[in-house]
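Problem 3 from the worked examples.
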Amino acid sequence: KIPPSLPQPTQAPFTSDTRLDSDLNPNSFPGWAARFANMLWVPANRAFYTTRLDVRDSLGIYVDVTAGINVNTNEIFWNFTSIDPITGQPPTSPFVGMLAINDSITHRGEGFVNYTIRPGTHVSQTGDVIDAQASIVFD
């Protein structure tokens, strides 16, 4: 989960990487979702996804999204980059970005990414523990 308070909006890039437990089947990854600025995206069953989200009506920017799984390193990744629609570059204003400064009423500055994945064929017992480790990098 994204920290509840940042000193300014998050512009570019926002990256999240999750190393998968070796007991998981990386070929079963395709279900994931992301939420930021009170908007939710759920791409349909794709192991790799790239698009430009047009959120000019609500945030005044585009958000470039690249997400997928690297089966060689067993890592899932999400990259979100705010783009100024006039310059085609990351915004220069510290007050413009995909994640607003958070507040406790609207929670506009919060967001998440999540995913579904199946266990490997050798792991299927109730009570098995699956570990996950993630990192998030902000601009």
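Problem 4, a separate protein:
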Amino acid sequence: MSSTIPAHVHIVAISLLSVVAASFAQPTPDQIAKAKALAVYAPRPAYPYEARSKHLTGSGIVLLNVDPSSGNVTSAQLLKSTGHKILDDSALEAFRQWRFKPGSVRKVRIPINFTMQGFREYVRTRGHSLWLHNATYWFLPEYPREARDKGLTGKGVAVVKIDPRTGYVTTASMLKSTGQEILDNSALRAFRRWRFKPRSITTLEIPIQFTTKGVFY
């Protein structure tokens, strides 16, 4: 039996970018737009369940050093901590995966804010109605730049199978396609990395929607 559970979690994780050298001054709108255009892969940091359950919030600034020949991030460091190691670690783990257009940037400064206000998520689950309380690691799928540039949108339903012994996702597939392979693949890449408490959930059904305003469950 499927159920719908609201959870109020909002991650403003990729709000501002700057391609200038590291400083604590806020980047200008032109710098923000330029830096966003240079990112070709930019997964959002997860909001760890432990942090959410304790209502931990905070804002900080991360500096990325980028290999200009490949566009790969070579290192990520905190210029300003969020005030909570668990949030700092989540941000750094995500930003180390970012990729930029080769030859476009050497340093990127990313202000980040973890907050628990202003966003609603709805996930229907099959097999367990308390998925959010049992999720130990999860994050929103990335909206691929290629899809955004082409105005591709769609909604579908994914299903994940979880190993009850470890809480790791063993398989993820689309019950209903979004109608766009690039969006399906982005959703499945994210869901395969979700983690749950052992012996809590075996199957999870996840509606997903990509719109011009963002990605929603």
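Solution to problem 4. The longest helix spans residues 85-95. The CA atoms of residues 14 and 153 lie 20 Å apart.
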